Amino acid sequence: MAESYQSSHYDHSIPDVSKPFDLRCPDNTDLWRIPPSTDRGNTPHIYRTIPASDFKSAKVTVSGPWTVLYDQGGLCMIIDIPGAQQNKWVKTGIEMLNGKPRVSVVGTDTWSDWSLHPVVAADKVSATIEMIVEHDHLWVYLIGDDGERHPMREITWWNALPKDATVKVGVSAARPATEGGELIVHYENLVINA
Predict the structure, then answer these.
(1) Which residue(s) pair with 104 in the sheet?
(2) 20 to 30 Å CA-CA from 45: which of 3, 20, 161, 186?
(3) Domain 2-188, classified CATH 3.30.450.20, yes or no
């Protein structure tokens, strides 16, 4: 299965994503764009490239030793538009804030917008998350242990993407702090439907 996957900013071999796997992430990595001039995009990313119009859904369970502020890992979709000066992206997963792991979603059109949600069980350091196209919009859900889908964000600009846009969809991790060393994030049950 790894043959159809590629990587960026990742100095290790691509794991077999059909089984549980880890992604190793150095510190000083992030995917974040805020005015007036912050534009970081050096997170390790394992992905498949598909036409945006073919994308249906992606789902994964993510866990990790979240210890440093902004430690993060989960699903990541980079949206490439031919001729555009900047790409767009959506990332969702667990992110460490104020000493607690939280479920986070970042939607980046021109600039990044960030939203946070408590994990379903307060003592958990893992989450199952899903991105899915519904009614021409991209929705992000947190999946509870009972299978209930908790809506977290609706990306309305999804249906305005040009027909020739492509997505690099898969998993990523980041440790924006410049200390703390390597972060190892664990993934299970990655499914991408196109």
Answers:
(1) 93, 116
(2) 161
(3) no
**CB-based contact 53:164 (threshold 8 Å):** no
Helix (H) or strand (E) holding 95: strand 88-97
Amino acid letter at 78?
I
First-to-last C-alpha distance (Å) of the chain: 15
CB 161 within 8 A of CB 81: yes
22, 40, 74, 85, 150 from 46: Cα distances, Å: 11, 17, 11, 23, 25
Q: What distances in angstroms separate CA 185 from CA 21, 50, 172, 176, one per listed residue? A: 9, 24, 9, 14
Quick one: which H or E segment has residue 17?
Answer: none
Residue type, 26: P
Q: Which residues pair with 9 in a beta bridge?
A: none
For the chain, counts of helices (H) and of strands (E): 0, 15
Neighbours of 67 (CB within 10 A): 13
Residue 186 identity (one-letter amino acid):
H
pLDDT of amino acid 118: 76
Write the pLDDT tens digit of every residue in 13-69.
999 999 999 999 999 999 999 989 888 889 999 999 999 999 999 999 999 999 999
Task: Name the residue type at position 18.
Answer: S
Q: Which residues, listed in sequence order, are joined to residue 53 by a DSSP beta bridge?
A: none
**DSSP secondary structure, 132-179, as one string:** EEETTEEEEEEEPTTS-EEEEEEEGGGGGS-TT-EEEEEEEEEB-SSS
96 strand-pairing partners: 101
